[in-house]
Amino acid sequence: MTVTRRKLGIIAGGGKIPQMLIEQCLAQGRDFTVLAIEGNADKELFKNEVRFPFRWIRIGQAGTGFKYFSEQNVKDVIMIGTIRRPSFFDLVPDLRTAAFFAKIGAKALGDDGILRALVKEIEADGMQVKGIHEVMPELLVHEGILTKKKPSKRDISDIKRGLEAAYELGRLDIGQSVVVQQGLVLGVEGIEGTDELIRRCKDYRRKGGGGVLVKLRKPEQDMRIDLPTIGPRSVERAHESGLEGIVVHAGNGLIVEEKETIALADKYGMFIMGVNPDDYFKQN
After folding, report:
1. What are the domain boundaries of the chain?
2. Residue 92's Cα: distance from chain center in Å?
3. Where residue 145 falls among pLDDT bands split at 50, 70, 90?
4. CATH topology of domain 8-135
5. Which CATH class is domain 140-283?
6. Residues 6 or more apart in contact with residue 278 via CB below 8 angstroms
7. Is 29 left (phi over 0), alpha (psi -120 to 50) or beta?
8. What is the 3-state secondary structure (H, E, C) of the chain?
9. Please, is 203 exposed, middle or buried when counting C-beta atoms within 10 Å of its C-beta (0-12, 13-18, 19+)?
10. How confident is the model at residue 152 (pLDDT cuts 50, 70, 90)?
């Protein structure tokens, strides 16, 4: 059965979610096209142009991408997937992108500020930006303990500290993730991303065990863009660095391949929790 909906434009970075969204569109018969970000989107996914229409672009070619979407009569846009630190070549802008950065200037110093400005730019072309949670709500993290293992008293203390630190980090539009062990903040996420944060924190661990990764949506962050996300790779990295568990913003974060992610955490004896920060502080 063909589903009649507004044409969707997908701006695809790396990871599994762009593929999941594309497969859903194909299964539902939804009309869509894709802008695949060079150096980020999965090359294997974009080998067969007959299967669905797409175009490769550099990060600096956002203006070219918007023009392509307009030509394709796109009405709704979803930006999803991880973006690695770009090279200088990636950042060389086309004319419209250069004008965009000149216009926003210092008003958008952090990732979230830039993304909010980008949303306005897209919607100025008559398209509407949607969140992945609006079309795939099953990806949202549920509140509570999702694994067999529960956090210990020491873990709960680290979770509280992590929530406080992650909130302030997000308020300043710096990052979403922190790693805490025995009450000490071992590291906060900057431009390097969560995987690199976890890796480098391995070198700072104290004797005696413990350690949690906390990921929160930034206080002013638009729900439609760059929600905190975990998946099997997050669990692998956390296990390699000796962490006890992962905490994600319930209803405001995403979990990719939920069954596989939880099963992997159970295998390693780790916990995964979905937490509403306000409620958590009241209960603990």
Report:
1. 8-135, 140-283
2. 24
3. very high
4. Rossmann fold (3.40.50)
5. alpha beta
6. none
7. left
8. CCCCCCCEEEEECECCHHHHHHHHHHHHCCCEEEEEECCCCCHHHHCCCCCCCEEEECHHHHHHHHHHHHHCCCCEEEEECECCCCCHHHHCCCHHHHHHHHHHHHHCCCHHHHHHHHHHHHHCCCCEEECHHHHCHHHECCCEECCCCCCCHHHHHHHHHHHHHHHHHHHCCCCCEEEEECCEEEEECCCCCHHHHHHHHHHHCCCCCCCEEEECCCCCCCCCCCCCEECHHHHHHHHHCCCCEEEEECCCCEECCHHHHHHHHHHHCCEEEEECHHHHHHHC
9. exposed
10. very high
* Residue pLDDT, tens place only, 216-275: 999 988 899 889 999 999 999 999 999 999 999 999 999 999 999 999 999 999 999 999
Query: Is the confidence at residue 102, as pLDDT, over 80?
Result: no
Q: Which of 140, 132, 126 has the alpha carbon at shortest distance from 25?
A: 132
* Residue pair 179/243 in contact by the 8 Å Cβ criterion: yes
- The Cα 2–Cα 12 span in angstroms is 23
Lowest mean per-residue pLDDT among 116-125, 134-143, 180-189, 256-265: 116-125
Same fold, 8-135 and 140-283: no
Torsion angle (degrees, nearest 10) of CA 275, 279, 280, 284: -160
The pTM score is 0.85
